């Protein structure tokens, strides 16, 4: 995972692939967003930011409440879907 997180573009590509795979097996947007939130929680607790983009996301995550963190997770999914 550390290689994936070392470059933000690589992370976005990795996440986009996983979102695409999830859709192909029939996961709903709600389920995908919920998983994105769980991943965000894991990353916040266990992984140090590797680049400026990740530092900004961590800062936003840290100041947000649960609803805002869920919104941030949904926005990350949308971002990679549009990329």
Automatic annotation (TrEMBL):
Pfam families: DUF3243. InterPro entries: DUF3243, Uncharacterised_YmfJ, YmfJ/YflH_sf. This is DUF3243 domain-containing protein.
